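<instruction>
Derive structure tokens from the sequence
<data>
Labelled lines for chain and fold:
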Amino acid sequence: MKRLLALAFLAGTALAADRPTPLKSGVEFTGADARALQADEFANPGMLWVARGEKLWSEPAGIAGKSCADCHGDAVKSMKGVAARAVNLEGRIENCRTEHQQARAFEPESQGLLSLSAYVAFQSRGMPISVPGTADVVASVERGRAIYHRRMGQMNLSCSQCHDDHWGRKLAAETVSQGHPNGFPAYRLSWESVGDADVPNSGSVWFTDAPGDRGTEVRVELDYELPGGRFAEALSRLFGEQPRQQVEDDLRRFKQVAETGEVVRSEGSPEGTRAAAQARQREAQPMAAGGGE
């Protein structure tokens, strides 16, 4: 049985800071064929979205009847370097669309949003990413540094244990990179099971700005298929091992770590709250006639 989960939590903005030396671009960890494809603007399928974005740039939208070009002019000049700064590019595009064009926001991963973000990002191609030294950004970097080196999750691993200590090694068919966001949206992480996995699954983790400047919204989308169908689904839920319950547990713990620096614990839950450890309660039943005190 396949299920799609969309679970959201708010957490403080975090940027990974420490990196091993020598620094290597994410593209260096891909195969020669993939690198050649990315370098070829005719063969690279991403250029289709760049072309669509260029068209959307000049198309009026919304109640205001304005196009991106009406405010920003020639994107080749005005957008150069924008994607190289520490910004949520998709969030900025959505803000311009809803606030200035007075148009309906794009859906995540929609063709319109992907096209405009690809076109704007293309104007910064080849530029190094720069991080401003403002107080709020510095504080975010320090929070990110602590999270990056902190063990967490079911495997009790930190980001640094793979991307700092074991970069360049193989994980199944993939080469472990140093974690740089080259060639992939920095706001999303994705995975997919391979081979004969016990529970075939795929999913993504999204990091987007929360409304009202309240930090970062973390959303997990998980697609999985439990062997045994509905019976296995019900059994896993009973014992707190359903994938949804596990994701909710991990998101809750991640939120606590991001906001307070630690997992909230108690005498009853020394390792933090988990669905599998919760007492299974029986549904309330009506009292028998004449019962009670």
